[in-house]
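Appendix B: complex inputs.
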Amino acid sequence: MESIKQVIHSMIQASDREMNQFLEDSRVATYQPYEVLAEPGVIPESIFFISHGLVRVIIADQAGDEHTIHFALENQFIADYSGFILRQPGLYYLQALEETQVFILPRKSIEWGYSNMQEGQKLGRLIAEFYFIYHDNRIKNLYARTPLERYNALAEVFPNIHNRVPQHMIASYLGITPVHLSRLKKNNRY
Amino acid sequence: MESIKQVIHSMIQASDREMNQFLEDSRVATYQPYEVLAEPGVIPESIFFISHGLVRVIIADQAGDEHTIHFALENQFIADYSGFILRQPGLYYLQALEETQVFILPRKSIEWGYSNMQEGQKLGRLIAEFYFIYHDNRIKNLYARTPLERYNALAEVFPNIHNRVPQHMIASYLGITPVHLSRLKKNNRY
DNA sequence: TTAAAATGATAACATTTGTTAACGCATACA
DNA sequence: TGTATGCGTTAACAAATGTTATCATTTTAA
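Resulting structure:
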């Protein structure tokens, strides 16, 4: 409970009363490695806050192949946020890769926060901006850097990722095959 | 002046007084095709609203090659938003591709809006969410669709783009060479 | 403890994509 | 009007990346 409060306090001013009411309807859940927090086809009705653990975001293409789109770490919010905002069925799997504890914030709480917390809208803005910057950076790197450069810079975005995630998932995140990543590493001259 | 008011009113409630004060320090500017609205290396101090025209967002890689990262159309906000938020030097060129008229909203106005407009933070949240959804969609497509599929779906995101932008810029946006796009189109069997 | 499964490296080969150059056509402009 | 420039297509070839298979090692689970 403390970690989410800390993170929110680092972004906005909120009274204890606001904070407690905001979190009142949240619940804690724990997932084992490879367990699934959310599946595609369902309208997302909650936002997750990861207190510890690691969540992989996956999309499946038409052929059924799965692609790792994102890794979400402790002290971050994660959701199929587009689906949540648009109230459309999600497209992502959210999968724990480690034993992972989350707070589940239902839509009701988010909406309560927007309407009733002094800085609720600001909190929403800052979270959206955080992910905007993450996405923007990612797209910059995609256009302006090679896969190997992106590989070498990965740990800046996901600290310690190489000790927490198998390499083939990293290859998937980079948009290349595991075989190719292995080759690139071999020729990694820096 | 009317178009930006309409767009803002479609997102939030705002009194005439709020709206007029918010826009008080904005100015109108007009750019000819290929003129540049913003360059990398400078901390972005304003947000643009395109009342008509079309702006291309470009990033240059280490080799100096330019990549088209985005097209911004009329009635949209555009900026090097990451740089604006983080107060860091921008990385993008913003280039008009048609005769383009914009409102330039200085940082001062944005901050005034956050502090003084009833729904200022909400406006910021909705704009950040809009671009979040755009980015998210884009990344989904990047992983789950082929370049040809992305080409065929382009006009959904950028209406009439094929009549407004030369094909080699579209190829650049898709992350492929003009020669390759030409080949793909030739084999486009649907 | 042991057997099965997952992981990562590597090789051989196939496919995709990039590079360079040439050409025809349209457009801009002097 | 004529000339230069930009655009899109095509072809030939090169480079990058994917595919499939094999192997050794580590991890997982019975």
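The CA atoms of residues 50 and 130 of chain A lie 16 Å apart.
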